[in-house]
Amino acid sequence: MKLGVLGKRLLCASNFVRQDAYLADIGTDHAYLPLFLLDAGRIVGAVCSDINSAPLESAKRNAALYGHAEKIKFVLADGAGALADMGITDYTVCGMGGELIADIIERAPQLKSGDVRLILQPMTKHAHLRRYLAAAGFSVLAEAYSKDAGKFYVTVVAEYDGRQREISNLEAELGKIEKNKISAEQAGFIKARVASLKRAALGKGAGGDDSYEASVLREYEKVVGEIEV
Predict the structure, then answer these.
(1) Running DSSP on this structure, what letter comes out for residue 73?
(2) Are 134 and 166 in contact (CB under 8 A)?
(3) Is there a contact between 63 and 69 (Cβ–Cβ < 8 Å)?
């Protein structure tokens, strides 16, 4: 029995898991992502971890239902630190806030290895996560965008190289922008973030023109201008 098609959000993340990887799915979403990748023959095995027992029990039931129980380990753990020395090559951390994802990475020293790939999907606080990755020595290899159930999402792929970087506020908020290479999904994501920044600036009243949000918006207009979907 096969799992079938993932939602577009998780499918986007799945595209960056390497062939023959041993995957850790942190905060597992009922094991849907590793089960899909096992069905596809992309990974050799997986570790599903979660801080709560209920998602893990659901993951175990799904693994048995779809015939992959013997290829998945289930670990009740807070973050990724408990998964060291398990031979994991690729880590997916999806469906959490950017601050929490950054904290998970910071508390797992084994992730600071050039052999490890991080596939991250922040729901909020994207700027915090991007700034953390830059300052902590992680190189962003790719960013990809998806639209699922009417919302836009970004997937950030990173590996450790030890080089600390500085990024602009614009890149922290909106990601890397190459104007002639913007997909409809990236344009939708950017427009949603810009709308949020405008609301925040307006909410600060008369001082809004001097706010952080206003400065990002000015840089956006200078670099990008209006983006057509």
Answers:
(1) E
(2) yes
(3) yes
Going 129 to 133 to 135 to 140, the CA torsion angle's sign is negative
Q: How many CB atoms lie within 10 A of CB 176?
A: 13
What does the angle CA 101 – CA 102 – CA 108 come to, to the nearest 5 degrees?
90
b/e code 63-101 from CB counts within 10 Å (16+ = b): beebebeeebebbeeebbeebeeeebbbbbbbbbebebb
* Displacement of CA 88 from its chain's centroid (Å): 17
Distance of CA 117 to the CA centre of its chain: 12
User: Given strand 90-96, what is the order of strands in its sheet?
Assistant: 72-76, 43-50, 21-26, 90-96, 117-122, 151-160, 138-148
Whole-angstrom distance, CA of residue 45 vs CA of residue 22 = 5
How high is the pLDDT of residue 227? Answer: 61
Please tell me the pTM assigned to this model. Answer: 0.94
Give the Cα separation of 193 and 149 in Å (integer): 17
For residue 157, give both structure tokens.
């792929």
H/E segment holding residue 155:
strand 151-160
Question: pLDDT (tens digit, 9 = 90+) per residue, 72-118?
Answer: 999 999 999 999 999 999 999 999 999 999 999 999 999 999 999 99
**How many other CB atoms sit within 10 Å of the CB of residue 115?**
9
Q: Which residues contact 221 (CB under 8 A, 6 or more apart)?
A: none
Phi, psi of 7 (to 5 degrees): -65, 160
pLDDT beyond 60 at 207: yes
Q: Is the pLDDT of residue 225 over 80?
A: no
